[in-house]
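Final report, Chapter 2: Outcomes

The project's central promise was a pipeline that accepts a single protein chain and returns its three-dimensional structure in a standardized token representation, suitable for archiving and comparison. That pipeline is now operational. To close this chapter, we reproduce one record exactly as it appears in the project archive, with the input sequence first and the structure output second.
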Amino acid sequence: MSEQTEAKGWREYRREQAWALKQEGWKQKDIAAALGVSEGAVRQWMVRGRLGELADRAAPGKPSRLSQADKATLVEAVQAGAVAAGFEGEVWTAGRVRQVIAERFGVQYSERHVGRLLRPLGLTLQQPVKVTSQRNEQASRDGQTKGWIALKKRPSGQATP
């Protein structure tokens, strides 16, 4: 059972316990203290209990287009590495994961949504390091060590040598 399912079951169990205590004649403030919740929460649960709606409600929004099995397969693919998926280098970016999802499952997601999809699965994306192809590393190091003196702030009125 996943953590999300366990948490959902726990919340539902707590509401049922509150309803049972109310049926035994407990006051709402005593129920709140016993269960470690606010009186407002107990009040809302009592309304739901009278309506017969103590069970958890379905999550709002559109259902995922990937099944739990598809998500498990995706996790395995990502853990196998980007090279195993046919990419050059071991960096998983949103674009690469998006491409794998499209190829293997026939589902199109935006790169932004890919991050939202991976987070609950315990995966994170990596940002590739961007370096210009024309960068001169030696000149860059020389500029960092020698040029900082010329750029250093001088008191007003003094000219740079």
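Archive annotation: The chain has a mean pLDDT of 83.
This record, like all others produced under the grant, will remain available to the consortium after the project formally closes.
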